[in-house]
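Can't paste images in this forum, so I'm doing it all in text. The chain is below; anyone willing to post the predicted structure tokens underneath?
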Amino acid sequence: MRFYDILKMAMNEEENVAKFLADIISIKSLSGEEEEVINRIKREMEEVGFDEVRIDDFGNVIGKIGTGERKIAFDAHVDVVDAGEESLWEFPPFEGKVLNDKIIGRGASDQKAGMAAIVYAGKILKKLGIEGNFTFYGVGSIMEEDCDGLPWVYLIEKEQFKPDIVILTEPTDLGIYRGHRGRMEIEVDVKGKSAHGAFPHLGDNAIYKAAEIVLDIRELAPRLKEHDFLGKGTLTVSRIRGGGPSLCSVADHADIYIDRRLTLGEGLELAVSEIENLPSVKRHGARVMVPVYEKKSYKGYMLPMKKYYPTWLLDEKSPILNRARDAYRGLFKEEPRIGKWTFSTNGVTIAGMYNIPAFGFGPGIESMAHSPNEYCPKEHLPKAVAMYVAFTLLEGGITLE
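Text version of the structure:
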């Protein structure tokens, strides 16, 4: 089997992949509202010839090809963020279209392009009919935008689905990504004492206390850990709320919300203790906690998850990463770009929590995520399809020339 033949077959599917991507972009699928797009993906998997296709009790769709021992899963979350201010868009965000050399619409890069490429990689694997030591799984996961990794907590814990490797198809501009920083959300609650606004000296203003805490948080930021590949841990105050019995009262409560990005060597206990040990937090007896995400999936399944999403990194000398390099070199006759995501993915659960080896390769432009006028370059689609096929065969013990 030749790399050239795989790439040629993928190029022959370019129009079909682009049309399917435009189709699923046109199905608005916010977190918790993915039922219609999941059913559409299931139909496409069945039509292109997957051996088995099912929707689990949480709401993920899983397609399967092959019976080999090596379980290789490709993941794409199919929920999207909303359009935001629609006046910033040059085209309707939820009317997916193939427009010259682009597929346009919300979710084009983040990350329905990955889902479309997975489905058509499956089609080519079926056409090839090669029996290697692999089972190919295509996973369309839900609710990732709301809670990174949540769908895979369900798959691993409830379904006992534990692949040998997972390829994350979030947009990488066709680079090979081997990890990213983790993240978590931290809430700091501080109490005060209300009094009439005409007698503020009789109260104890919680917002003033919160202001002191915010300044200490800002001073903490430069002291966070740094990693030579993943970069520095960061934090930012993303929200402050407070108040009292009325707008004519001294505030008796306030809360501060922190977005914390975690580099390698930083975890939940460290990040929480850093906030708890701030002088102002101790002085004012503030409470520091990690919120819990609790929302039902479209199938009515609730799986509470603490808003802590661990850092992960695949070793640069990993045999899996070397096979990904080999697949890329064989197909495209050049060296791949090895990188990392700036944002977070389902890898926080897959690799960060459960230590399942993972890497990323996805069609689409990373910087397009959550932006107006989102699009995916059309040429990315067949390249991603070919990469998924070639990597699966190499990982399954098939020699490619």
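The chain has eleven helices and 22 strands. The longest strand covers residues 182-191.
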